[in-house]
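Re: the multi-chain job from yesterday

Posting the exact lines I submitted so nobody has to dig through the queue logs.
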Amino acid sequence: MSSTKTPILAASNFIRQIIERDIEQGTYATRRWAGSPGDAAYQAAGLPDPAKIRTRFPPEPNGYLHIGHAKSICLNFGLARDYDGVCHMRFDDTNPEKEEQEYVDSITDAVQWLGFGWEAFGTSHLYYASNYFDFMYRAAEALIQSGHAYVDQQTAEEMRANRGTLTEAGKDSPWRNRPAEESLALFREMRDGKHADGSLILRAKIDMAAPNINLRDPAIYRIKRATHHNTGDKWCIYPMYTFAHPIEDALEQITHSICTLEFEDQRPFYDWLLERLVEAALLAQPLPKQYEFARLNLTYVVLSKRKLIELVENHHVSGWDDPRLPTLAGARRRGYTAEGFRLFAERIGVSKADSWIEYTILEDCMREVLNISAERRIAVLDPIKLVINNYPENQSEDCFAPNHPLKPELGKRVVPLTRELWIEREDFEETPPKGYFRLTPGGLVRLRYGYVVKCTGFETDADGKITVVHCEYLPDTKSGTPGSDSIKVKGNIHWVSVNHAYAAEVRLYDRLFKEAHPGAGDSNYLDDINPNSVKTIIAQLELSLKEAHAEDRFQFERHGYFVADRKDSVAGRPVFNRTVTLRDAWQK
RNA sequence: UGGGGAGUCGCCAAGUUGGUUAAGGCACUGGGUUUUGAUCCCAGCAUCCGAAGGUUCGAGUCCUUCCUCCCCAGCCA
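And the result, structure tokens for all chains:
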């Protein structure tokens, strides 16, 4: 009947095909691994690498991870898992001005929360680009000595001007052909702090007329006096991403270096650099290869770092973990599950085509996972009182509600029925629209897990707003008793005993943006913010919910999936966040 | 109007070297089950693969031309 639908089966994609081909052809079979990252000589002394492939997830610790990163994480770690390889957790921390320890902590948390780890073949594979600064420096000197790099002293403005344009070739720097010894001496002075920030820069010497702008002598090492979160003040020069990343991959014996499309133009430099370092005997073949895939675009969401920061700093949301934010920290508070994200990642696939995934796909994945895993509970979110006039006062009767309709082994729990109950305001209509089959004057409806009742009247306040609904119950119709369904009713509404309820704070979240493409065209994405993205209410919950622990997830029957907020819940007084509603085929 | 990529059903996405009727998922539409208008089950859903030509017995898969979209001119990653 149910649960066999969720198994996550990996679909074919171009990256898997490349990996399968490489494994079949033994492309990386000769690699050796000495137990940790290192240069050619070090690795050569190692054993054949037990990992069939090595991938890596290389975030810069300068922000929080979001749903887009989840795609990359699932891809890289998932590939390693599926092909007997390992995925390195690597912080690409080459720019000390932007990076902080706080971010590395939140990132490792998020990756582990998603269900992945970096312990494999007996060791941890948590690495930092900054741990390779010594090697990078060595590689830079080797490049200078082989005539493949030089120290330029043009200003940033001059460099930009001489880079040319998309259609015009650039001009050689006047310092381009200075002797290698001179560049070497200058580079060492840069390292030794003898020059001001920005006054000198190390550039690769390739071709100022290259049609690919990234090959027009790209900057590879800059002077930047900043305290690094990891290396402190040891260095005042830092490598650029362009230079550092290929080296990081090579030192770690990465086989498949998977990144997003915008790095495609960078690949020729990636290969050029590594080949030069092989010539310098610093690295050995086979070299890692870079492959690019399309980053995730999700409707009704913004994923750009700049916009996320703006939303947080300008208090459009409560913080980086606001449940409305697409950050992993936010999604977690919202109640989204790691398994749901993994399902999502497989479901959307991997390709090179720019695409926009409909947000409902993500929600569906969460529903699919939660439907199987979440126990059911009863919650009245917008209460009005229902009085059963023919039911004795001071009487209480046990009704039995299954904890999970798909898993009878989880048993049932007792919910007490009394004369006065809370029911959902929308479950009563004085003048029902066509097709409405809940409570109406004179109509019958079943109190879920209890009796069938007949509406006998209702009360309103001065504004005509319904305050109390009256009914009478039919004694022989109690759920679970013989003949209880002799009277068929289509409507089935939930309820909570007034005397046995837990009045709790519940946050009803909706999407943060009301437009599928926030800020599309000339509009400002901030103007597309949904003013009703959260509604905080006091709901009447069945008493058992009072004991819920932070991050416990439930399906509130007929409403949706909710989670006890991991931040604001207190023992004995949990607060709930709505993760996602149930599907609703009833259009009102 | 330089370079690099991408265009297969509303949204994703398979489609190995050209070979019967173009996978699958989501959405949608019918029908069934159901004490959640949920779930689940069944059925339907591209004569067509950005366009136009061409090669071939045969093309989404090869060739030509064209169109559209994305990325690149940080001492960011």
